[in-house]
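4.2 Preliminary Data

To establish feasibility before requesting continued support, the project team ran the inverse folding procedure on a target of 747 residues. The structure was first converted into the token representation described in Section 3, and no sequence information of any kind was made available to the design step. The complete token record follows.
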């Protein structure tokens, strides 16, 4: 069936078909260039832009949540309601829609997602005078995590522990396939903020405390997400979002110019340079200026210095926050003008905000507070994104194929990712790996048999899988049982677990924290709970081998449990995490994860990161004094760096001879650090300059070649105000891998 609508101002008929918009008049492409798929994107954008009214242009800048059109058209969710669709899509002419965390169709299946997105798209096109499609966004941050039955990958902090950009890219490709199959074309991922403070509730959404490692993993994920050309990635949250002054989400940050430029910005720039189509703005303020109001950040830096051409979108309701929270203005129109003039191209809007945003922007354009030129600039970027994604030709997906494309897809990749993320931190006496022929093994702890805990927040709903909702996956207990059968005994009760361990060959206790997200998940004391510390102590008192597995969204201060003899950090390993953990514990896989962050000893050690600068300080833990340092991680074999050599000018070339000196095959993560022992500006004692993963057979040695631009060693020159340009300081650098180093002279 096709719906024909007369396009009064175009002078030709346009058909809306199952596949998209079609020209129905001979030679129409010459008359209606924006509908000609063979025309250049720039000419199509220009042609469409000149046909649009101010109201149609303003609507393009609005991105309401789908709940604005469901149920009570506020927050209830439910079935789509035509009257609300008419208001949002027809009257307000919005250009985009999103599903935030938990904003799903009535039945949360891939097919129902596709049907819902198709219905919204069809209504938008059919009620648009110029038949302009919407672009639909979703937070698919560890796989298509909103959808029941979709495979959930490890959260980003676990991906950081893999040190594997190729894996990150593959996960991006997989996520894009699942997202596209269900209708959306815009993924609000990856998070390019760097880890800083474990009190912050979004810590697990970052890749690493190191800007280069985070940048490489995020850039790879962007490439994977956008490889098909059907899904756009988002670099978020630009910039400095992860360094709240008091450790609480969306609070002020104080980041001096040198720290901002040398430490925070590189991870975002790497993802922008990888071709990300969109950027999302930091919800907080930096040095007294809300990021959404910063012309320097969003225009001078992002556009003019970095050359970004894509769409800048606000985070949730952050445009109006300039009025309600930051009090930069006392009107909604004033808030819209500040944000749009700073460089925001689209506002993300919850219920109750859509009319205010649209009416405010219309008022701004009418009064000249937002120029028509700036409006056209934003609309052009949004339209360019839609043409790039092929939405004018193919606005719909085949809902009948969605379930097959999403349900249980790429489980092997999820197992691989979770396995590579497993980070072995202690293995006293080489108790691990356990024998698959083991006798009785007690499995206990609050996360031993919990899919919600191992998935974490942003899974099905914003704060994680709700109570009573079953999402498929392999728990850690199930994974262990799959390896050793009935020898694995799940014992949830702590007293019973201690008693049964006395007659067991070993106990595996899975501890950690519960799912959560954003401010709700902030923790002033990010530590393992007292009852879990006590459980570890009581189990160890039995004298039997006790393997502590931590399933958590951040490195928790372990307290008494820090004396565990065997300690495995599993992060938030996703739906297939149980298989990965079991494979590592029983030697089917050799652990290769390395900490992408520093693990603090006490809750007072915040923020903590390995690049903190030295000073004249003294006293316990006043310097870099982690429980486990950045890059820490053990294996079931042993490795050695046997030599390092360095050469090159603008590109530094590093050769590292490595060897597997043990008896098991494994992957060796090789970080290469740069040190400047003497320099005119303080630089971190170590800076990650390059890294690689090397698969090595038992007894094998090889030489790996790495390279990096010398500019990676640049720092911001000048005095305290950081007024100088970034440059590589002259001096004698040391390039370090393992316990070997080579000198690099920079004149």
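Position-by-position output of the design step:
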């Amino acid at each position: 069936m096709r719906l024909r609508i007369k396009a009064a101002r175009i002078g030709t008929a346009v058909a809306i078909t199952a596949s998209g918009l079609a020209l129905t008049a001979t030679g129409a492409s010459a008359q209606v260039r924006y509908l000609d798929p063979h025309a250049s994107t720039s000419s199509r954008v220009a042609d469409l832009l000149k046909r649009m009214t101010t109201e149609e242009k303003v609507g393009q800048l609005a991105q309401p949540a789908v709940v604005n059109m469901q149920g009570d058209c506020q927050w209830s969710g439910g079935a789509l309601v035509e009257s609300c669709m008419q208001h949002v899509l027809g009257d307000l002419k919005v250009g985009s829609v999103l599903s935030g965390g938990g904003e799903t169709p009535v039945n949360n299946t891939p097919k129902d997602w596709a049907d819902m997105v198709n219905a919204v798209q069809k209504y938008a096109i059919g009620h648009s005078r110029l038949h302009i499609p919407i672009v639909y966004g979703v937070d698919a941050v560890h796989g298509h995590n909103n959808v029941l039955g979709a495979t959930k990958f490890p959260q980003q902090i676990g991906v950081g522990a893999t040190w594997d950009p190729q894996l990150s890219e593959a996960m991006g490709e997989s996520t894009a396939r699942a997202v596209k199959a269900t209708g959306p074309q815009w993924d609000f991922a990856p998070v390019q903020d760097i880890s800083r403070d474990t009190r912050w509730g979004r810590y697990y959404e970052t890749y690493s405390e190191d800007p280069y490692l985070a940048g490489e993993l995020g850039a790879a994920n962007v490439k994977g997400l956008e490889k098909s050309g059907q899904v756009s990635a988002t670099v978020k949250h630009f910039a400095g979002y992860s360094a709240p002054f008091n450790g609480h989400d969306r609070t002020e940050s104080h980041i001096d110019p040198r720290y901002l430029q040398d430490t925070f910005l590189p991870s975002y720039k790497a993802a922008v340079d990888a071709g990300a189509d969109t950027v999302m703005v930091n919800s907080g303020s930096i040095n007294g200026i809300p990021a959404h109001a910063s012309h320097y950040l969003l225009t001078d830096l992002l556009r003019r210095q970095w050359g970004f051409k894509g769409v800048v979108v606000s985070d949730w309701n952050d445009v109006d926050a300039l009025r309600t929270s930051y009090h930069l203005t006392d009107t909604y129109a004033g808030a819209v003008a500040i944000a749009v003039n700073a460089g925001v191209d689209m506002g993300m809007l919850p219920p109750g905000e859509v009319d205010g945003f649209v009416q405010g922007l219309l008022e701004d354009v009418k009064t000249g507070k937002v120029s028509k030129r700036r409006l056209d600039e934003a609309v052009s970027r949004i339209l360019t994104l839609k043409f790039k994604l092929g939405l004018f030709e193919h606005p719909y997906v085949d809902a009948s194929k969605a379930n097959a494309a999403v349900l249980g897809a790429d489980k092997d990749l999820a197992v691989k990712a979770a396995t590579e993320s497993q980070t072995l931190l202690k293995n006293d006496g080489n108790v691990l790996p356990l024998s698959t022929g083991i006798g009785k093994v007690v499995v206990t702890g609050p996360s031993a048999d919990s899919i919600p805990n191992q998935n974490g927040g942003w899974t099905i709903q914003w704060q994680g899988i709700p109570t009573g909702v079953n999402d498929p996956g392999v728990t850690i207990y199930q994974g262990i049982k799959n390896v050793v059968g009935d020898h694995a005994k799940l014992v949830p009760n702590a007293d019973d677990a201690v008693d049964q361990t006395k007659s067991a060959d070993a106990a595996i206790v899975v501890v950690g924290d519960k799912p959560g997200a954003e401010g709700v998940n902030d923790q002033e004391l990010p530590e393992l709970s007292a009852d879990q510390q006590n459980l570890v102590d009581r189990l160890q008192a039995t004298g039997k081998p006790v393997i502590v597995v931590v399933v958590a969204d951040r490195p928790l201060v372990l307290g008494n449990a820090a004396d565990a003899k065997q300690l495995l950090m599993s992060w938030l390993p996703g739906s297939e995490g149980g298989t990965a953990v079991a494979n590592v514990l029983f030697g089917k896989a050799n652990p290769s994860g390395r900490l992408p962050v520093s693990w603090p000893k006490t809750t007072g050690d915040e923020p903590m990161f390995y690049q903190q600068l030295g000073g004249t300080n003294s006293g316990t833990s006043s310097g870099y004094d982690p429980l486990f340092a950045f890059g820490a991680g053990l294996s079931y074999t042993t490795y050695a760096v046997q030599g390092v050599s360095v050469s090159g000018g603008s590109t530094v070339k590093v050769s590292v001879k490595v060897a597997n000196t043990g008896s098991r095959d494994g992957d060796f993560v090789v970080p290469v650090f740069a040190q400047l022992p003497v320099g005119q500006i303080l630089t971190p004692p170590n800076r990650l300059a390059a890294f690689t993963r090397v698969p090595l057979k038992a007894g094998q040695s090889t030489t790996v070649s790495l390279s990096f631009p010398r500019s990676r060693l640049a720092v911001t020159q000048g005095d305290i105000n950081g007024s100088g340009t970034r440059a590589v300081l002259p001096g004698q650098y040391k390039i370090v891998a393992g316990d070997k180093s080579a000198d690099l002279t920079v004149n």
